[in-house]
Automatic annotation (TrEMBL):
InterPro entries in the record: DUF488
Organism: Tumidithrix elongata BACA0141
Taxonomic lineage: Bacteria, Bacillati, Cyanobacteriota, Cyanophyceae, Pseudanabaenales
Protein's name in the database: DUF488 domain-containing protein
Pfam families: DUF488
Top-rank taxon: Bacteria
């Protein structure tokens, strides 16, 4: 149980220009971007390809970058969700079970996540696993404020 209050942000990069993306992070006082994508090297990632993003964040906003695969869905869960035309309820259930099995609340620290920002691709947080990660950690740690950028 952590008593320190954690301000946790989340952001998706699709439907944002690089300028919007980086300006939003800087204005919000983000210290670390936590990449929660399973695949962060695809061409579709544009300016958020892993090594590029790490470089840009540091140069543009002196923001650290860390990729935590434990916060990503497994390929199985993701593929099944896409094949099933996205039954969100099933995906959510499986993903939260995965977070619990992985005990992610013990693998990431409140220090890392304070003024941290969970990154994935979806433009909006509703049907996106970054929201599930944020809410899971909030339930595990108590003092977490979530802000979706």
């Amino acid at each position: 149980m952590h008593n320190q209050s954690v301000q946790l942000f989340t952001i998706g990069f699709t439907q944002k220009s690089a300028e919007q993306f980086f300006e939003t992070l800087i204005k919000s006082g983000i210290k670390t971007v936590i990449d929660t994508r399973l695949n962060n090297v695809s061409q579709l990632a544009g300016f958020t390809k892993k090594n590029d993003l790490k470089y840009f964040l540091k140069q543009v906003g002196d923001i650290d970058y860390v990729h935590i695969l434990d916060l990503a869905p497994t390929k199985d869960i993701l593929d099944e969700y896409k094949k099933n035309k996205g039954d969100w309820g099933v995906y959510e259930q499986k993903f939260l079970k995965l977070m619990s099995e992985r005990q992610v609340e013990k693998k990431v620290s409140p220090e890392l996540l304070s003024h941290g920002c969970l990154l994935c691709s979806e433009a909006k947080p509703h049907n996106c696993h970054r929201r599930l990660v944020a809410e899971y950690l909030k339930d595990s740690w108590v003092n977490v404020k979530i802000c979706h950028l």
